[in-house]
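Consortium newsletter contribution from the modelling node. Members have asked for a concrete example of what our holo predictions look like. Here is one, prepared for the iron/sulfur cluster complex that several groups have been discussing at recent meetings.
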Amino acid sequence: MTRKLTKVIKIGNRYLGGDNPILIQSMSTYLPRDIDNCANEILKLEDAGCDIIRVAVKDMIDATMIKELKKRIHIPLVADIHFNYELGIKSINSGVDAIRFNPGNIGKNESLKALVDKAISTNTPVRIGVNSGSLNPKFKDSSLSLVDKAVESLKHYVSLCEEYGLTNLVLSIKMSSTLETIEAYEKISALYDYPLHLGVTEAGLSDNAIIKTSIALGKLLNEGIGDTIRVSITGDPIREVTSAKSILRALNLHDSPDLISCPTCGRTEIDLEYYANEVQKELEGIHKNIKVAVMGCLVNGPGEAKEADLGVAFITGHGVFFKKGEVIYSGTIDDAINKLKEELKQYK
Ligand code: SF4
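And here is the predicted structure:
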């Protein structure tokens, strides 16, 4: 895979675009005014591997609270602005690291210009996003396909921002269908060198959202398209971050542990799902590229466990713990799993 080298944008203490790591984003389910819940949730997301966090800014109270929120968290903070450009200006004054808005709902061009001027004068990066549900009215009723309406809408907004002198830009063009998302991002990637924020919008509940997003983002990332990703899920944002990590890891684009466990079958004599979950919990907080196997029986167990950096296989009534292919312990399954968990502590 050859990565498309986009323009590098600095967001807080992170670099986005170029050949920098692909950054994982999520969004808080709390407003900044709910400061304790909002900050605590973001700290948990940081631990889970979130690189950039976005918060909804609904009114001036939220925009003001950005200042306090910034003191409590460590990752770059993006303010999500709709309808009122002054919320963007206030958020920037409160020290936000970037703002995201859809120019289509910011109002008159003068309002857009005022917000863009503020972003330029403070060197604040801006993501402009078009979603399939928020197209520019100019293109809404045209005979173009939905993807082309979104592409034309985004082109229109990019031209406006560029006319006003803003080039510190990240772009997104999220569609709610997998195939349309792929087509839309391929078209935008061919047109611009701005870094792209990938995602499928309104992707749905957990399994459906993860599958739709994995297919769309997997294809795009494998073509070298995309600099930051969000897996939108109706539900716990921690799941958004862990799924994003899994997508990136599957494409060798992220250093994090990979748990290999067999699907279980009639030969399985232990509660493998329980033990795999125990090990998965222990993998949280590890940011290294290691392979860990938890396997049910003799058929594929020893092979997979030996191939992995660390592994446990249940073989003829024994829990066998392997480290780099060598048998370290053979005894009860609980003891073998505990030895594996103990070993994992060294990677934290
Ligand atoms: Fe079944 Fe053994 Fe394969 Fe697991 S490793 S699925 S228990 S045959």
